[in-house]
Amino acid sequence: MARPSIDPADAFAELGRIKLQDNSLDGVLQRVADLARRALPIPVEVSVTLVRGETAHTAAYTDDLARDLDERQYAQGRGPCLEASLSGTVVTVPDLAAEDRWPDWADRGRKAGVGSSVSIGLPIQEAVVGALNVYARTPHAFDDESVSILNTFGAYAAVALANAQLYDSTTTLARQMQEAMASRAVIEQAKGIIMAERRCTPEQAFAILSKVSQDSNRKVREVAQAMVERAARPSGVERAARPSGV
Predict the structure, then answer these.
(1) Where residue 6 falls among pLDDT bands split at 50, 70, 90?
(2) Domain 8-171 has what CATH class?
(3) Which of 28, 56, 58, 227 is a Cys-bridge partner for 164, taking CB atoms 3.0 to 4.6 Å apart?
(4) CB 84 within 8 A of CB 131
(5) How many CB atoms lie within 10 A of CB 93?
(6) Domain assignments of the chain as residue spans, ordered by start
(7) Alpha-carbon Rg of the chain, whole angstroms?
(8) Contact status, residue 67 vs residue 43, Cβ threshold 8 Å
């Protein structure tokens, strides 16, 4: 059963309370779609389109109907949600039965029971654009007030999506940096062990690590980690576990 409609002001406020640190980017997108669905006093289905380069996909949706109509546009390379995404404007289809800009898509939508639609362009960042797509069962379902609400809601949604995208990118970068630092640290430890055992230079120690990596078909970090763990074992176990060539 669909959730009851809420006052648009409450929807805007709830959107502003989303805590990015507690939600994945997909979770934020789904919340945007759910709130948009509830912000209108008429039954609708909602989806969020994201376009990166020449690739478009539906990142969130409230019903398979919305997703299917989006994907029909992606397959054809044209349609209201793509036009709204790329232009950053509002694209309305008041009556799918009379729509002549995208006749194939309109025919598919009409047969699926859709009468009208609105797509709100969401300029997220230079590399990614998107649209909030709203589908209604009846023709001419979106009056000026409804379009105004969705346009304002789209502005709020664009900010939330941009922040979520930035947070997601920053979190990913931080994790990658931590992994790189940990990898470098363990490799330096392994080099130190080899230098102490072989009385060699840092360059020679790394060359030995690289050779063991190639011979065993393992990453240098994995070889280094095994060596550091071996060094921490009792001496008898250490000799038994020594990697070949090290």
Answers:
(1) confident
(2) alpha beta
(3) 28
(4) yes
(5) 24
(6) 8-171, 178-241
(7) 27
(8) no
